[in-house]
Amino acid sequence: MRRPVVGIIGNTYMIADTYPGHGTSTMNSEAIARVAECMPLIIPADPLYMTVDELMEACDGFLFTGGRPNVHPEEYGEEATEAHGTFDRARDGITLPLIRACVERGQPFLGICRGFQEVNVAMGGSLHPEIRELPGRKNHRMPTEGSLDERFSRRHPVTFTAGGPFARLMCAEEVQTNTLHGQGIQTAGPRIVIDGTADDGTPEALYVRDAPGFTLSVQWHPEHNAAADPVSRPLFTAFGAAARDWAGARRPHPVLKSA
Ligand SMILES: N[C@@H](CCC(=O)NCCCC(=O)O)C(=O)O
Fold it and tell me: Coiled-coil regions in this chain (predicted)?
């Protein structure tokens, strides 16, 4: 059987500070190829180039990756302010309808950081532009100095709901994770289940209630050191199994089965 194809949502970057291109970190491709055991395919996420239907036909599952630009607040009914930072409207135009279509059809996805936030917004939730300004919250942003491994080092605990899909998948109710984000979930969408939180109350792990397929998503970055990290590895392995099920029969692999 051919390997399942996982569409890795690309971000827009300036190449050599001169002209725009699409891309993703090799950590994402590596995690999909070597841990999920699927074929990584980087997607130039822009509705000018493709439709959601075409993407769903071409790919068996999707990795909604991290990305510096924030989801546009119009997508959750708020006006943009300076605090909301920069945006990527082309990516919003693909990812938000694609998430809703995957939820409805049971096609698997794994959301990471901005991708986690996109899942919440796509399902009717909202984001806070700068969570470190909320009372009692810590700074979750990427350290401004240090090697890649230092910047992606584990910085806070995440506690999962006892008996929930994440606790079952990780065989632990508490894990340590990295953290590289400024925004965070403000209100969860009606079907979003927050299944893990940081020690300052920031939502860190979610799934979509009653979705027929795999929807596990995390605010941290499991793609770092995915093959060796005991928290990352089960997430990518379970996602790969869900994509294989979909590729084999074009049928969903439910979140609870995956855990
Ligand atoms: N913009 C959001 C999401 C942060 C995020 O995904 N960070 C990783 C960036 C990786 C990259 O630049 O590709 C926020 O700040 O909350």
Answer: none
Angle between helices 89-105 and 114-122 (to 10 degrees): 60
Asked whether the predicted pLDDT for residue 259 surpasses 60, the reply is no
Give mean pLDDT, residues 5-17: 96
Number of domains, the chain = 1
Average predicted confidence (pLDDT) for the chain: 96
**135 domain residue, yes or no:** yes
Strand boundaries in the chain, DSSP class E: 5-9, 11-15, 19-23, 39-43, 61-64, 109-112, 126-128, 156-160, 174-177, 184-187, 192-198, 203-208, 217-218
Domain holding 28, by residue range, is 5-250
70 CB within 6 A, ligand 1: yes
| Per-residue pLDDT at 257 | 54
Alpha-carbon 158 to chain mean position: 16
Determine the Cα–Cα distance for residues 227 and 133; give it in Å rounded to an integer: 34
1 vs 108, more confident? 108
pLDDT over 90 for what percent of the chain? 94
> Does the annotation mark 223 as catalytic?
yes
The CA 250 to ligand 1 mean position distance, Å, reads 31
Tokens encoding 253: 């692999």
- What's the N-to-C CA distance of the chain in angstroms? 24
Interface TM-score (ipTM) > 0.95: no
Tell me how far apart the alpha carbons of residues 9 and 43 are, in angstroms, rounded to a whole number. 5
Tell whether 258 is covered by a domain.
no
Q: How many Å lie between the centroid of ligand 1 and the Cα of residue 248? A: 33
- The CATH number assigned to the domain holding 156 equals 3.40.50.880
Q: Which amino acid is at 38?
A: C
Residue 26 in any domain: the answer is: yes
